[in-house]
DNA sequence: CTGTTAGCGCGTTCAT
DNA sequence: ATGAACGCGCTAACAG
């Protein structure tokens, strides 16, 4: 309950508090015997330095704030794995808060992180405005995915969603499909819009007219995918392939198709976006546009670390590790168009 | 960069630091005009109280440590949702660390949390020993899932895994299946062992001899489920139903069966354990033993909060909200045995 | 009602 | 090499 302090250690070890501090932080040479005495005292009292006090003194909390939207989003969690990996051994610990796609809550959470004096903030997804981003960055360095801004204290990284949308659709076209549906992601989300653009672009460049009836709204989640398929089938508009805005949508679509007596890939080919770990295990395994989610997490974290250490090196860090590009991972949910 | 302090506010508002503090914490009556002056200064300087300093003073960090094994485990994340819900509006924020099923790392992380002066610790899964649990609890109150210990500063909650295993198997038996396989969870994990016990018990009470050839090792993950099915099929031992140690195993099994040309539920019935949100969307949707994961998260968090506030009320809290029991959720992965 | 004073636990001068 | 003294930002006790 009552925790030991440096003074307790000092008393037990028969030295002064500063000596204890010196030993613990390794900031100066100390006599071997005293070091041993202190180390024993630390063990005996099960002493843990109070990080709060340390932070107050040093101005560093060794904590990084991470804003995500849902704690249970497989996408964010995969990215978080990368973040965790990059932070390993650095002494920094992430503290994750979620905004639930609610702009006000996002901002509240961000302010909370600042109150906690995190040394930096990582925004995985969200719709904080550029304006807010810059304002907040006066208090703490920020690295954000899904933005296009690079100031001294804000860095961002963006997936080329339009290209991905193009690639997915192109892949389906190359398989001979011409009636290709698209399940859009969240209505006002940037990547969702970009992927739709890519889809249209691929269609156009293949000389196929864009048909609004083949585009249905999803929500980046399983439910949306399932409902979208239902709607699509009900509309009577024939289609032989579907490009889903992300893998989760694809899982829902898989179920929706089954419920309508359609098999994948026999009746309908399906392609997703992201390549979540689970996509190897969906039934059937999902063909998808692989995005380096994990690597992005690593990169974001490293960039933030660079920003924190001092803006000098951060540029070089950014250059030195380029992210892998988008690629198509062909699995069993797609096949050439027949008949 | 340089953050404003109470003194800055005091200076700008023309009052003393304590008055600022009084207004911000609402700990005493203050003249209306000064309140306004302070509030304006706060806005003007974009002031955020330094939680580090606050903690140092009050001895509370308003932070709860949560130990999980993997950041991307859907099970833990579902429970975490419950925790988040219970913490809403309490001012407490969870900080999540992961142990990766590595005992040493678990302990390290736990100590890290203590160094950060979390006000309490929540252990969602893991294999910290009773011994360690009690030792750590001297420094901070702990609530742990999957343990059987209740001291003044440690509370725990346990799923009745054996009963669940029994229920699952019984359900399959009632459908007429007699050759029922079981994919076990992690080898040395308590719940995994209990579920296996339940499975055997149900078999025995139905007068069916236990056949070791029908029990294969999994790992609580999709991979394990898939591999287990492979192994099972390769062994040549016929079976018409499978009880999977958890839903994730079930998803893998679903794929494994498909890969072996077996359909669910036509050829093989499949039942899982947990009822993860995704089980509604698996292909086909998974019949499973529903465990109140979310509610458990809520309960764990509330219990911990009770422990923190003062051990007096914590008992009543524990009594007043009983958790829902285990139930079978019948979906499309099971059907009566035929032929 | 309000300002002054002290101290939470630590790291870091500054002397010695 | 080591101890004493100070201050990080804040709140609480004590005067007034």
Automatic annotation (TrEMBL), chains A, B:
Keyword Membrane: no
SMART domains, per the entry: HTH_LACI
Pfam family membership, one: LacI
HTH lacI-type domain boundaries: 4-58
Keywords: DNA-binding, Repressor, Transcription, Transcription regulation
Molecular-function GO terms, alphabetical: DNA binding
UniProt KW Transcription regulation keyword: yes
InterPro entries on file: HTH_LacI, Lambda_DNA-bd_dom_sf, Peripla_BP/Lac1_sug-bd_dom, Peripla_BP_I
Name of protein: LacI family DNA-binding transcriptional regulator
Organism whose genome encodes this protein: Pseudaeromonas sharmana
């Amino acid at each position: 309950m009552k925790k030991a302090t440096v003074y307790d250690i000092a008393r037990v070890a028969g030295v002064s508090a500063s000596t204890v501090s010196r030993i613990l932080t390794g900031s100066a040479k100390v006599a071997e015997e005293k070091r041993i005495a202190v180390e024993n005292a630390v063990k005996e009292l099960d002493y843990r330095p109070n990080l709060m006090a340390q932070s107050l003194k040093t101005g560093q909390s060794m904590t990084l704030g991470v804003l995500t939207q849902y704690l249970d989003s497989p996408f964010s969690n995969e990215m978080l794995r990368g973040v965790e990996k990059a932070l390993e051994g650095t002494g920094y610990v992430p503290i994750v808060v979620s905004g639930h796609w609610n702009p006000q809550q996002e901002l509240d959470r961000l302010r909370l992180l600042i109150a906690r004096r995190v040394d930096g903030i990582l925004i995985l997804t969200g719709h904080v405005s550029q304006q807010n981003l810059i304002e907040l960055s006066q208090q703490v360095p920020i690295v954000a995915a899904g933005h296009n801004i690079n100031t001294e204290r804000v860095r961002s990284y963006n997936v080329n969603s339009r290209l991905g949308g193009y690639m997915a659709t192109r892949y389906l076209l190359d398989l001979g499909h011409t009636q290709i549906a698209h399940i859009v992601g969240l209505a006002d989300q940037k990547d969702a819009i970009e992927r739709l653009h890519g889809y249209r672009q691929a269609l156009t460049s293949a000389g196929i007219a864009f048909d609004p009836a083949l585009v249905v709204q999803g929500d980046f989640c399983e439910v949306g995918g399932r409902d979208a398929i239902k709607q699509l089938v009900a509309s009577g508009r024939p289609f032989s392939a579907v490009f889903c805005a992300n893998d989760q949508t694809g899982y829902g679509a898989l179920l929706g198709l089954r419920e309508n007596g359609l098999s994948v890939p026999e009746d309908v080919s399906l392609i997703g976006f992201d390549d979540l770990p689970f996509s190897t295990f969906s039934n059937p395994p999902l063909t998808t546009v692989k995005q380096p989610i994990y690597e992005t997490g690593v990169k974001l974290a490293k960039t933030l670390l660079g920003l924190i250490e001092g803006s000098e090196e951060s540029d070089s860090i950014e250059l030195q590790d380029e992210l892998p590009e988008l690629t198509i991972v062909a699995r069993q949910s797609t096949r050439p168009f027949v008949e």
